[in-house]
């Protein structure tokens, strides 16, 4: 009986994860947290063979229909990033925004989000900086 129960539990978990993964991209965006969750589903950082992992922040606004309003602006990039790293991550951020727009806002969220800037952090570094090394200066774009 335990084996049958384990199989049922596994099947239910796989089904739930499959539904959740597919639904996350199509789910209506109703809260600010949903905006960030929706963007996470579209984020595909460059492979380590193309660029070292860095953190990057972009400020973007949306209109009521969920399309990008104006031009996204990079406001932060990790200080230790090379020019190639920055270029690869800027491309990845813009591709993520293209994949995620138009944002499927609910009517209520469309009214609340329209024209408001969102500072979206794309973090790709897995480890924290070494505590023994000297602190680095932030590099503003």
UniProtKB/TrEMBL annotation:
Highest taxon above the source species: Bacteria
Keyword presence, S-adenosyl-L-methionine: no
Keyword Signal part of the UniProt annotation: yes
Keywords, in A-Z order: Signal
Signal peptide: 1-24
Bias type Polar residues, positions: 130-141
Region annotation Disordered: where it falls in the sequence: 120-141
Protein name listed in UniProt: TonB C-terminal domain-containing protein
Source species: Bradyrhizobium cytisi
